[in-house]
Amino acid sequence: MKKFELSETALQAEQLKDSLRDPAAGGFVSFEGWVRNENEGRTVQQLEYEAYPAMAEKEGQRIVAEAIERFSLTEALCVHRVGSLEIGDMAVWVGASSPHRGEAFDACRYIIDQIKVSVPIWKKEHYTDGDSGWVNCERCAEHGHEHSGHHAHGPGTAAKQ
Amino acid sequence: MKTLHIEYYALLREQAGVKQQTVQSEIRTPAELYNQLAAEHGFSLGTEQLRAVVNEEFVNWDRQLNDGDRVVFIPPVAGG
Question: Is the pLDDT of residue A147 over 70?
Answer without folding.
Answer: no
